[in-house]
Amino acid sequence: MKVQEVLNDLRRRFPNEPEYLQAVTEVLESIEEVYNQHPEFEKSNLIERLCIADRISSFRVTWVDDKGKVNVNMGYRIQHNNAIGPYKGGLRFHASVNPSILKFLAFEQTFKNALTTLPMGGGKGGSDFHPRGKSNAEVMRFCQAFMLELWKHIGPDTDVPAGDIGVGGREVAYLFGMYKKLTKEFTGVLTGKGMEFGGSLIRPEATGYGNIYFLLEMLKTKNIDIKGKKCLVSGSGNVAQYTCEKLIELGALPVTLSDSDGYIYDPDGITREKLDYVMELKNIERGRIREYAEKYGCKYVPGGRVWSEPGDIALPSATQNELNGDDAKRLVETGCIAVSEGANMPSTPEAIEVFQKAKILYAPGKAANAGGVATSGLEMTQNSLRLSWTKEEVDNKLKQIMSDIHGQCVKYGTEKDGYINYVKGANIGGFMKVAKAMMAQGII
Ligand code: NDP
Fold this sequence. Notes:
By secondary structure, the chain is α/β, with parallel strands linked by helices. It has helices at residues 3-13, 18-36, 39-43, 46-51, 99-115, 136-150, 169-183, 206-220, 238-249, 272-284, 290-296, 325-333, 349-357, 365-368, 371-385, 391-413, 422-440, and strands spanning 55-64, 70-81, 87-93, 122-127, 159-162, 230-233, 253-254, 256-259, 262-265, 299-302, 313-315, 338-340, 361-363. It has a 5-stranded mixed sheet with strand order 1-2-4-3-5, with helices on both faces. A 5-stranded parallel sheet has the order 7-6-11-12-13, with helices on both faces. A hairpin with a 2-residue loop joins strand 8 and strand 9 (262-265). Helix 15 (371-385) packs across helix 16. The chain is globular, with a radius of gyration of 21 Å. 51% of the residues are buried. It binds NADPH dihydro-nicotinamide-adenine-dinucleotide phosphate. NADPH dihydro-nicotinamide-adenine-dinucleotide phosphate binds at residues 94, 96, 163-166, 168, 207, 235-240, 259-261, 317-319, 342-344, 369, 372. NADPH dihydro-nicotinamide-adenine-dinucleotide phosphate is lined by residues 94, 96, 163-166, 168, 207, 235-240, 259-261, 317-319, 342-344, 369, 372.
């Protein structure tokens, strides 16, 4: 089938899955030209096989809260494509989780993982369990109940989950503990583990750091120095925190952070000391970003989005579709020169169009935030070798991988006028690798 026919068919079959259709449309439209140059792809209906997940498992998760109430949540694992390696992708725990969101994430993950140059297929999973307000014991019981089903579907050479929204080091550890008990095996079946039991140095930092390494590569193409640049960062979780950390280290000025209740604007910049406070607030006390404004006496906008503020660089690091066309117009009008996505699909299609029309530097998440999964891949390697690399070794490998991903975007995405279309570059780079592997493996 031709690309447009496949898209129409998917819209007809999955009308209630807007995020999945959004991700598929973006990828297919940008690879159409290359796809049409390969009649052998069409003959084996490669596109349709690449858009439909290999397998989707859904299950009931039953757990008891601190008051003794029995709760029921949905659990999912999407195994999208394993043409180049075991399924690999995070678990998301958030009230908004549904099949459409996980299908979009698993689809995107397949191309992202291909771009890292490491042997990892694409997957994603999670639950509509919302960790906000839950006690530590409740989170533990939920993770254990979730793993009671998930373990049947995963394995170190089959499918290797990791963290995502709502799943950090604490949750990965509880999940790992239960997997180990059920299987009686100590294997590298989850990544993002603690350092004491097989984790990798730099894994917690990798997505945020990797995004800034990618940004530096983009800025280099225009001879722009990051020093002193005002940066708008959204979110205040894992990705946002380590994005800020690297920005501070490089002499840039992060001025915003947010959570689902609102955002803070600190014109003096978030310093190392202030970031330590945020880490304590978010990771230990599990408080709200509003408390930052109360402590440091800066502006807090309830319900607002950080893109209302002027900045040189935008680093969306919270969630999908958090930056729309109007936000993008405002950013461009107020002088934003670069957007690099820490989150997955944070910019709407309208926003991407605005950035590309204005010809500013714009990197989609599947390229810019691939450092997280790449370092998960490095954790898998260390687990298999049964040794640990130093911080410098992992960080240098991460830098090299981000530079290689940038190189692939330049190779496949440079347009006639010299503008680098990073969306096209990342999509074609990822697609070609998976497509070639699928072609070689026959019709399965
Ligand atoms: P965390 O759970 O650590 O943090 C998420 C942050 O985003 C929180 O501040 C949260 O606020 C906010 N947020 C979540 N959902 C919404 C929403 N619907 N509206 C507004 N704010 C929201 O997650 P991560 O930092 O790990 O993930 C952030 C993004 O980065 C996601 O898109 C994820 O897929 C992507 N990503 C993460 C990787 C990783 O290694 N962790 C790797 C690659 C991509 P609140 O506390 O109020 O919920």
